[in-house]
Predict the structure.
Amino acid sequence: MSRIKSVSAIEILDSRGRPTLLANCELSDGSFGRASLPSGASTGSAEAHELRDRDPARYAGLGCLKAAENVSQEINRAIAGGVFASQQALDRCLVDLDGSDKKSRLGANAILSVSLAFARAQAAQRGVALYRQFADIAGTVPRLPRPMINLYSGGLHAGGQVAIQDVQVVLPGAITMSETLAVVSDVFRSAGTRLLKKYGMRLLTADEGGLAPPFASSREMFVEAVRAIEAAGYAPSDDVVLTVDVAASHFYKDGAYHLDGERLDSAGMVDRIDEWRRDFPIVSIEDGLDEADWAGWSTLHQRLRGHVMVLGDDLLCTNPARIRRAIAEKAADSLLLKVNQIATLSEAAEALRLARAAGWHVVLSARSGETEDDWLADLAVGWAGDYIKVGSITQSERLAKYNRLLELEHYARLTF
Ligand code: 2PG
Ligand code: MG
């Protein structure tokens, strides 16, 4: 039982220098929780609605003053003094208060900031680590997720040099998080050295800290990734494998996938992805097709299942209704879970439950705009994600999560 004393929020900046929210929640016994929020760039159209000020004179319309005010005023008035028996009870109250389809009235950002700050306040009240609080919300048994770490970026996270968004590395056999990060650091350095030789200059990195070279094609990205792994002294397939976020919705236009100078239809795109996974050590394909191409997804899953994870991000938007449809249509077998796509911890926990009941893999994911807050690491551990996707190992908003995972590995003695 937690009586809320007050909630409030302010506008702060994320890793892209864009506004986001920092919320505070104080309980009547003085327990306190605080959380800040991430924000996506390659968003799915079924995501809950992030409220922005739309004042062109401030942050190009992206200000969050209205969302902050909604927390400090309307939400505070509605819940301050209230007793909430559980996270579910608070979240239900927030969703009902908003009353709109996509949380557009108060803002998904306003709602999520309160949902998360309340979870932290409850953890403080109980004197437990945040991951334990999250595990108790979902009824899961904590464990360390394996990180998918961004090596090369393209699409909306870079300058669009290559259409596909992320090529990531995973260590399938590593025993510890600290071993994983040490090897990935070697691979990242080796990739950087190769690019310096190839292009004769230091290249810019993308939103999540991944290398963003002007590769000629998607295929070149995979070839280079394999060479970087080898040059670092590791064996592709055995030591290090690849996962890919194709983010295909963002290069699907006028009925075709515009990839590497070609126009592919859905069947052509499925063939292309199948070719990649045969030729390279790829173990997971995220958003291989457009978010509305449901029939294509069933074909893709039929073709790839048993070989790689068929992972839905824009397709599913952490939305229980879309996950149910994907299970029924056998359109995917893995969920990319981002709580700000749905806006409350309870609904995200429902998404997790559905995915697990269908035998799916689950990847807990950051957004391309992040803050230095590390709650995602605790969430991925508490909800026992198979994987966590946080971006590269070069920027502090990403490292906050990796470093928290290291802390949990060492002090809470959690393992993969
Ligand atoms: C994705 C995410 C994270 P964004 O597509 O998986 O990489 O990107 O936060 O921009 O949606
Ligand atoms: Mg994605």
